[in-house]
Amino acid sequence: MKARKKKAAQRAAKRTTEMKEKIATNAENKKAEVVDSTEKTTAAKNTTKKEVELPEVKAEPEKEEKMSEIKEEPTEKTEKKKVEVKPEPVKEEEKPEVKEEPIKTEKAENTKVQEQEFERRMARHYDELKWLYCELYENRMDMFEDLCKNLKNIYADRKADLKKQDRVREQDPEWYKKNDILGMMMYVNAFAGNLKGVKEKLDYVQESNVNYLHLMPLLESPEGKSDGGYAVSDFRKVQPELGTMEDLESLADECRKKGISLCMDFVMNHTSEEHEWAKRARAGEREYMDRYYFYDNYDVPSQFEQTVPQVFPTTAPGNFTWLDDMKKFVMTTFYPYQWDLNYWNPVVMNEMVYNMLNLTNKGIDVIRIDAVPYIWKQLGTNCRNLPQVHNIVRMMRMICEIVCPGVLLLGEVVMEPEKVVPYFGSVEKPECHMLYNVTTMATTWNTVATRDARLLRQQMDIINRLPKDYVFLNYLRCHDDIGWGLDYGWLGQFGINEVSHKKYLSDFFTGNYKNSFARGELYNADPASGDARQCGTTASLCGIEKAAYEKDEEATKRAIRYDLTLHAYMLTQSGIPVIYSGDEIGQENDYTYHEDPKKWEDSRYLHRGDFQWDKAELRHTKGTIPGEMFEGLSKLETIRKSHPVFESTADCRTVDTWDDSILGLIKEKNGEKLVALFNFSEYDKVAWINEEDGMYEDLISGRQMEARGVQIPAFGCYWLLKK
Questions:
Q1: Which residue among 49, 149, 280, 347 is least packed, with the fewest CB closer than 10 Å?
Q2: What is the pTM of this model?
């Protein structure tokens, strides 16, 4: 019996030795073996239990894993045998290989750790991702498997420092909800000429307290038919005059070193008609025609037109364009040269995901999803905010959490707050990390024109009731116009008529109303309905331009105070504040666009002018507009970063001031209490609040006072902190 056991032990030891020799002998051929079985092996290792239906994929890797287990976890008897045979003369003769072995092992271990990281993230989302994908694309498991395979490849290509940042942010998922983030949006060419120029100017960006930089559309788009860069002809190329993808990656690297998060637009609803897909579709290639919506006649388009609203009824009426060379109609929700993508086709879904992840792998931290409500089209609906849109955004969120969890999704959804909320998803199944607070922006300017803060207060009450997990991106103005989509149903109780009110707003902000201090221009004005949108810089709309032109020093001081008050209000709101490049120095309207035939038809260029570096040189000179604005804004931004009461998760409520022109907010967090008061009137006023809990200090001026019957100067504000 003992003899048999001894023989069995010897045979086991012999097999172990043979296996070790075989592995050592084939070490150099390892890569070839991996190549042969990579696709099936990887798929098997990264799938969940539900993928048992692919036996041929799983069978072979299981054998390899078992062999590894024999090698790594030997029995006691084989372990003894190993110790006995460890000093083998063969290994001593192959010293160079032995010397390299630890390096190979280290790399292998690092690769294994990263594979486990990817597999952990994939396992967390796999079931839901598969379910949502297959709900949209029935019986297309082939496309889903292709997506999963490519996600792993894209993750593998992600740079080490990006993966490191992902892990840090993954451990602190609330990192973007703090009070230390300040954004700035800009056009690359207007700010510094090109991407290299922006990189050279990052010190100025930091000096402006900015650590979130939104670069307006910069991917390749046709001149004259670019829609400001939103008609993309190549998602993998930068506009030649702005630089290259390498320049973009270099800028992202430098931003990351300086602690600046970089944001870019991702236009996923449509492509330019000059995109390769569109060109090949136009050439009659069925595969590419299926990536858009083509119709031989107007029968189906006419049915769509019955239920789908027009985005630009005056400048680009209808939702379809006739292509005479193809003798077909193509869906074009926005402009005729922007062809809507067909997300019923899984190829479109997959390819656009890869385009998005290409940007994140270049170092983009925030993906702004342009026109997200429009991406799914269905006959008989208004093609807005359909359930499938939410499925797609949810999948994009999960895909980012698998490949690049440090990346945020910002949704461009232009609706009132309560209708925007679904795009946040739920706590269990989140969609966008952040959404634009469009309505509050428009209502702020309505308050400027009317001196009546009641609608603004009502909307603040709505936002304050929303879960603290929801993060809004707040701004006073952006690259676009100001639309007057106000709550006219609510305003109707005060006898306000929509048509006449819009006429008043247009007259006020173009300076055509008596005693108006604003200077701006209309955009997309419709003479028939009287509807129009508004353009202009913050400084020009709140009176700085007019006062400076008239050389009225008192009016200039008051206008600067108002500009700072509006920014103080933006900084008080829950969420991430974003200023438009140039606002920090009080930059005024740029009327030179009227002289440029490429721009003169689009009045939005009024507030998209080149950054005035000569004025920026005065940012530290007291008594100048740039100096007063830069110093004033810097002070407000520094205060905000210093107090937890400004965090997104702080409790916030409105307080009655007994004066319709004064907005009052109370914010509380970690034992801090802030009473914020904003006077939208050109007269000194009294806020009849009555907080009977002692003395407060105005964080802006340093004044000590009670929060009772507070006197506020015209267009002024207070940040009163309980002592």
A1: 49
A2: 0.83
